[in-house]
Amino acid sequence: MYSIIKQSIITTAVSLVLIIPAMASAQDISTRFKPTLATFVAAAKLDCATLDKGILEVTDGGIYFTTDFNQDGITDPIIDTRVFSCSSSATLFDGGTGGHYINVFVSNDDNSYKRFEFLAQDSTVISLGSSPVLLLKHHGTSCNLLAPSACFAAYSWAEGTFNTTNAIIRPQE
């Protein structure tokens, strides 16, 4: 039993060594973010393996270091789950017409990160003056529109969370 667990840990560590650099797309992953990233990728790998022993693959360019939402001087990473694919499920990470998950990791004072998860069809970050804004394209039904219509939501950071005029998104546990 011990050798099976040891082999699993070694396999996971080797996989993460191969996956994490592919996600960065030649961008520097800070030492501070590496443990959070490793935990996030390990969870995705486990989700995939649970479905008929699927194998997780990651395409290049999966992490975006775009802005500092909470203005603490540390750039907050974004991971779009479309960069993950699972050999045993076409939709586990890519989603369907409703979208896929956009994960924003906002730095904390204690060297950790809070993860915020959004379901969206696409995302970008814009600036309005000195304020970064997360702009998401949602499925039309999110705005009580006909399904093929697109609607958009803009999220800004205030008081420790992302805010918009119609919803507050809480961190994932």
Explain what this protein looks like in three dimensions:
The protein is α+β, with helices and mostly antiparallel strands and 173 residues long. The protein is 23% helix and 36% strand. The strands form 3 sheets. Strands 7-8-9-10-11 form a 5-stranded antiparallel beta sheet, with no helix packed on it. Strand 9 and strand 10 form a beta hairpin. Helix 1 (2-24) crosses helix 2 (34-50). This is Spore coat protein U domain-containing protein. Keywords: Signal.
Quick overview of this protein structure:
The protein is of the alpha+beta class and 173 residues long.
List its traits:
173 residues; alpha+beta; 5-stranded antiparallel beta sheet; 4-stranded antiparallel beta sheet; 2 helices; disordered N terminus
Sequence-ordered SSE layout with sheet pairings:
Blueprint: H1 2-24, H2 34-50, E1 56-58, E2 63-67, E3 76-80, E4 84-86, E5 100-107, E6 113-120, E7 122-128, E8 131-139, E9 150-158, E10 161-163, E11 168-169
Antiparallel strand pairs: 1-4, 2-3, 3-5, 5-6, 7-8, 8-9, 9-10, 10-11
Helix pairs in contact: 1-2
- Total helical segments: 2
Termini, distance in Å?
Answer: 30 Å
> Major sheet: size, sense and barrel closure?
5 strands, antiparallel
**Classification by helices and strands:** alpha+beta
Q: Summarize the helix and strand pattern as letters.
A: HHEEEEEEEEEEE
Low-confidence stretches: 1-22
Major sheet: arrangement of strands? 7-8-9-10-11
How many DSSP E strands? 11
